[in-house]
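hiii, so i know i said id send this last week but things got crazy w the move. better late than never?? heres the sequnce for the chain we talked about at the cafe, plus the structure i predicted for it. fair warning i was half asleep when i ran it
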Amino acid sequence: MAVPNDTRDLLILRRKPRLTGWLGLGWRLAAMIFLLGLLILIHWIERDGLKDNYDGTVSFLDVIYFTMISATTTGYGDIVPVTDRTRLFDAIVVTPIRVLFLLILAGSAYAFVARRSWERFVMKRIQRTLRDHVVVAGYGTKNSRAVEELIDLGEEAANIVVVDLNDDRLEKAKAIGCTVLKGDAARDQTLDAVHIQRAKLLIISAGRDDTSILICLTARHHAPDLRISIAVNHEDNEVPARRAGADVVVNPLDFAGLLLATTHGGQHIADYLADLASMKGKVRMIERCVKPEEVGKALKDVSDGLGLRIIRDGTAYGFWRPQVASLQDGDVIMEIAPTAAANEAPSSV
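okay and structure toks below
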């Protein structure tokens, strides 16, 4: 279903308003009517201090007319305050009400016209710069931690677009500098709004496996070459996730179980794996393509850290396999390298 550009082209952080747009407008209209009524009452009470230069008589209709032109700061001079009391009352009471009346008018104009136009301008400008960005669908515990790690790895926060339906989560993402969109990542117009075709990575963790898989399927339809990583909670959903187009499928619960099981082999293994998974640790896992000058060399001779395996034509070969003795063009190297934190203090890993 086609969606107008002025609807889908907005990346806007919104908090749930206490008043809807129409209720807000109704409140403003009620306040204006109240203030106009108060001004009319004051002028009617002080009508003896007014002078009508047309017929010399100040009627109730004249009071309404004088109030309207005074509230709009027009003033034609046909009806004017002449006594000191009325002029003083107009200066210290009526004038502040007149200013408040104008502020309400200006606020209404901004809320319903200027703000929308400004948001459209700003968000279209943001969209023009969205290229090779990271889209994060869902900002729960797993994805918020993933975003923190991406930033630690050197990704600019503004280059990360978080999509979620929860205002509080979006506020947290915006607080660390991310671009945010309140919307359903499983919908075509939402993915169009974040220019999923120009993204370099999509990370999905929507809380429910069926929702995450649907997001993956929709994204793959829009961006056939996009790299997609997805988190699923149940082992049975790993195969459907891959069939939906995910390049990487992670089962956090399964991984947590494996991590806990490593304690059977020693108390330090789990600590090392946790250290390895974080950019803030002393070591990190690196995946990179083989360089032209490394072709023909052995894995142990080109790795800056500890070479673990290579991936050749989709097959992984460990450091003990004969295939790693001579690297080929197109190989992917996986290695463990020290981080900057490794030199800051004695390492326990």
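btw Confidence is low (pLDDT under 50) at residues 1-17. thought thatd interest u
miss u guys!!
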